[in-house]
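Long-time lurker, first post.

We've been arguing in lab meeting about whether S-adenosylmethionine would sit comfortably in this protein at all. Half the group thinks yes, half thinks no, and nobody has a model to point at. So I'm putting the question to the forum: if I give you the sequence and the SMILES, can you give me back a predicted structure of the complex? Inputs are below. Any interpretation is welcome too.
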Amino acid sequence: MKLIVKTLEGLEDVLYDELINLGADNAERVNRAVILEGDKKLLYKAHLKLRTAIKILVFMEEFVIQNEKDLYDAVKKIKWEDFFGLDNTFAVDAVINSPIFTHANFIALKTKDAIVDRYREKFGSRPNVDPKDPDLKINVHIRDQIATISLDSSGSSLHMRGYRRQQVDAPLNEVLAAGLVLLSGWDKKSDLVDPMCGSGTILCEAAGIAANKPAQSYERNFGFKKWKSFDLPLWEMVCEEVEKEITMTDMPKIKGYDVNSKAVTISLANILNAGFENHITVEREDYFYQDDMENTLLIFNPPYDERLKEQDVNEFYKNIGDKLKSAFTNSIAWILSGHLDAMKNLGLRPSAKKKLLNGSIPSVFCKFEMYKGSKKQKYNQDQQNESHL
Ligand SMILES: C[S@@+](CC[C@H](N)C(=O)[O-])C[C@H]1O[C@@H](n2cnc3c(N)ncnc32)[C@H](O)[C@@H]1O
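Top reply:
Settle the argument with this. Predicted structure of the protein with S-adenosylmethionine, as tokens:
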């Protein structure tokens, strides 16, 4: 099978690494996706384990079209009855990036008509459309004049892990939170702190990564579970294999703080839902009054005035930078923000920078290293004791 694994902009590299770790080969990075060859076992495992995948499409056909009639004819030729029967429901989702075809709804409608007409002509009857919870979700993607038909094997978006039943304003998408932890290069052993943890998304994703716990529950209603080709014994074998890979002993210290007591309650509830209540602590604490912490990895996304009102966002960021310098010596802070100007007020030079999209907000994820003394001294010290975060 040719699999198209979709992700968020900026996370293609970490998704690629995740897939290679799962044993994929022939993987190719494209914009917001990784394309690879894989079998059913890899498809099942990827659904359980990938943290930076939004959905996985299984490629079916690709053809060049001049107009909607070409699309209709090509779709009608596909042997849909091999994939779903008259009693099953289906839905068509169209994504368009073309100067010729501009109406996604119309493309979806034409595709649906072609499928329905094939069934009517062959069996005198047709399967029903269910836009909410179809048995088979068909994806049409048109780029310029190339139409790609694939099956959505995931069902609902994989960012919804199920543990986050409550959230603060401006919560991070779970896929993005996992992406931040993976991008930071965390060694899964050092202490990890989110000093403005909100609903605890970064904390839960980090604990999942450290424990090698599947990102999804085995019971999840994945799209492929409704397919004619679903292989239950293979699925059960994959679940058993994945379960054996979990290592909850020797977990690192993962700590969250938030100034808002409601956020603390919410994150603790989410952590409990995720099953990490023995591995993550959360306390109510104002970042600016934190006790000093050394040798810590901080990952956080402070509020800014796009979605959360800050009285003076530049002053707020300047104070964040001052506190990093004074209280978190020999530590590394990775900060995600959509307020690019305010980031300059941190007063620290980033040693790494990655552009990401947080929802629709162009953001930067920057690494800041707070050394005691000069960088050179720190470098020499690192060379001596070879300890690094
Ligand atoms: C953008 S939200 C973080 C969202 C979080 N990553 C999530 O996924 O839910 C920013 C959080 O910073 C907290 N915050 C703001 N000022 C703070 C401060 N001085 N100390 C600690 N937390 C603070 C807010 O209460 C809010 O929960």
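For your lab meeting: The radius of gyration is 24 Å. Residues 167-168, 170-172, 177, 195-199, 201-202, 257-260, 263, 286-288, 301-303 surround S-adenosylmethionine (CB under 6 Å). Whichever side wins, do check it experimentally.
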